Each structure stands twice: as C-alpha cells, then as structure tokens.
Amino acid sequence: KGIDELGDPRGKRVLLRSDLNVPLEGEAGDSVITDDGRIRASVPTVQALRDAGARVVVVAHLGRPKGSPDARYSLAPVAKRLSELLGAEVAFATDTVGESARKTVASLNDGDVALLENLRFDARETSKDDAEREAFARELAELADVFVSDGFGVVHRKQASVYDVATLLPHAAGQLVLAEVRAFSKVLDEPERPYVVVLGGSKVSDKLGVIDNLLDKVDRLLIGGGMAFTFLAAQGYEVGGSLLERDQIDTVRGYIERAADRGVELVLPVDVVVAAEISADAQTSVVPASAIPADQKGLDIGPATIELFRGNLADAKTVVWNGPMGVFELTPFAGGTREVAVAISSLVDGTSVVGGGDSAAAVRQLGLDEGAFTHISTGGGASLELLEGKKLPGLTVLED
Ligand code: 3PG
C-alpha cells in the first residue's frame, strides 16, 4: 500500500521512517557527510508528503550507538543536508520522544518537516524484548496520526520504528520502499533470460545465502572480489596471500558441483591484479588465476577476466550485481569494479539491479552514471536478505 492509499494526509502528522544512515567523517559537531546517496533517495517521499500538506516527522538512525545519546552519532548534520536537498527548513529535535520532539512536532504547520534525533539513542529501539520495543513504539506513535515506512535499508530489522510502530498506526510504504521491492521482485520472481548474477565483495561467508537461493534461478554466476579466491582454492589452485576462507572450501565445492548439475555457468577469474601489500602506491602485476605467487595477494580481477565478464554480460536481459570486484577504494585495484559496472550499465539491454552497500558506494565513488542502471538499492543487509529469499519483518508488517 502506497501513501496515496492512506487518505488525504493534509494536516496530519506523518511519522516517516527513513534510512539516513550515511557515512560521516570528522569530529562530532564538525563532521562531513561523505556519501549522501541515502538522504537523496529519501527526498521524493518527504517531498510528496509535503506537497500533500502533511506535517512530516522524519525518524531515522545513524550508526550503532549503545542505546544512549552520543554526539558522534547525532543526526544534526543530516538535518542540515536534508534541508539543503529539500530547499526548505527542517526543524531538528534534540531528542527522539522527549520534550524537544513533542514541542518540535507541535510547532509544525502543514507541509513542514522535522527530523528527530537518532532513534538508537534509546536502547528500546533495538531491544530484543518485545515489551520494551512496543513501549518505545507507543511513544513514537503518540507523535503522529499515520506511519509511512520508507527506510528500505532497515526493513530487515525487527525494531520499534520499523516493525512495532506499524502495528499501532495506519500505515503505508513510501516511494523508496515500493521502488526497491518492485525492483527485487522483478529479478527474483520474473527475470527475463539470460539471467546473470555478478557477485563480489571480500567474504564468501557473507554471500552463502545469496548463492544458495540464486543458484536455482540464474543462467550464469560471475564471481569476483575477495570471495573468488575461496572458489579458486576449491578448484585446487594456490591463492598466495589472497583472502581465503578455508572453512568454506567444502561448501563452495558443493556450489560448484550444484552449478554443474543445474547447467548454471559459473564464471571465475582467469587472471588477477596482485600486489604484495594493499596500498595506493603498491607495485602491481597481472598474473593468471592459476599462478598467484606465494608472496602476493590478489586485489582485483585482471583484464582478461574483465573481457570474459563483458562477454557474459553482453546478451543478458536481467543482471543483479552485488559486491565489488576488488579493493576499489584504491586506484590500482579499482579497474575491475569500474569496468564491470560500466559493462552492466552500458551493455545490458534489460533490467540491471545493483545491490546496496559497497556496490552502490562504488558506483557513486567512481563517478559512474547512476541513471544507467535500472535500480541501485539503498539497502546493504536488506538487499542481501531479499536476495537470500527471506521474508523481511519491516515489509511483512506492512502487508496486512
Ligand atoms: C545499513 O546501513 O545497512 C542500514 O542503515 C541498517 O543499519 P544496521 O545494520 O546498523 O541495522
């Protein structure tokens, strides 16, 4: 159910859960937002509610404070950025359900926006105790007439502002949550073929559930990033000083066999960029994936692998990409991630979905055209759990 189905929101106080968990650098009180992608993605729903005359009360978390106020995790810099993006004032409450929040909400006129301080400054937000969470959700619910859930990045969390509050107020999904759910439903339930999934990132153990769920659906699985070395090791190669999860080798061997049984093409790196150390001025070379020297680490996919992946992407009608191909934060190891992203955005004539977290950050940090992908997710853990085929509490609670 979208916000249109909530009835006329004019004059109503709308509690809007957004995911404004952005990276900050610098000292508390003087910090800088280094990637405002999530704030920008939250704007359309805030704007739509303002345009409809609602009094918008945005709630969000930042980082993982320990359940009490901590200046390093204040949402104050986020309020400032949100206000710049909206071109309108955002009233900032210095607490979440206390006097400042109540006064700030009471002062709103139709079309105004407030942001309340970090939800996780109250330990009840993330409590495992249902009664504690419900008590906090009730205090949040008292600040509003309706609830809109738009924090896609947190819908996998059973937390007071994500789950419990939806059981207390009339509710709807915001535009971002709807767009995310539609994009993932399309690639999970009705993919056009050929269907290619590109997985990367450092640890294969983070992706086991995704591989497990997608192996039965895809035509090709392309593996890069640090996780590829456990696949190479499972095939009997020496991987030198590269990342290797020895305890996953048997599981990975099982996936290799399952892919072969199902006729899924499993495409692994054929060459890698190696260096003795992970640094921006490292001495690099390209070696075959079957011959990584003992004193070198594989830190990116090599040029022959990029070509191989391009060939496998060229005719794809559906692509899901999750996880960088190398240590893209450092220039010598960014090429694989950049070229794979460019290939997906330029070659694929169909649906391309980029999982959130590192891959979405890579698209932005490498200055690539975000509009060239069908969808770039704002959710890291949430998008992974959807790809694992899980039901997410923050979505199921909206379905009643
Ligand atoms: C994220 O960064 O993935 C979301 O904001 C959720 O944050 P969390 O992992 O701290 O719950």
Automatic annotation (TrEMBL):
Its main location: cytoplasm. InterPro entries: Phosphoglycerate_kinase, Phosphoglycerate_kinase_CS, Phosphoglycerate_kinase_N, Phosphoglycerate_kinase_sf. PROSITE patterns: PGLYCERATE_KINASE (PS00111). (2R)-3-phosphoglycerate binds at residues 38, 120, 157. GO terms for cellular component: cytosol. It holds the Pfam family PGK. Substrate binds at residues 19-21, 38, 61-64, 120, 157. One of its GO terms (molecular function) is ADP binding. GO terms for biological process: gluconeogenesis; glycolytic process. HAMAP family: Phosphoglyc_kinase. Monomer. Belongs to the phosphoglycerate kinase family. This is Phosphoglycerate kinase. It comes from Jiangella asiatica. The gene is pgk.
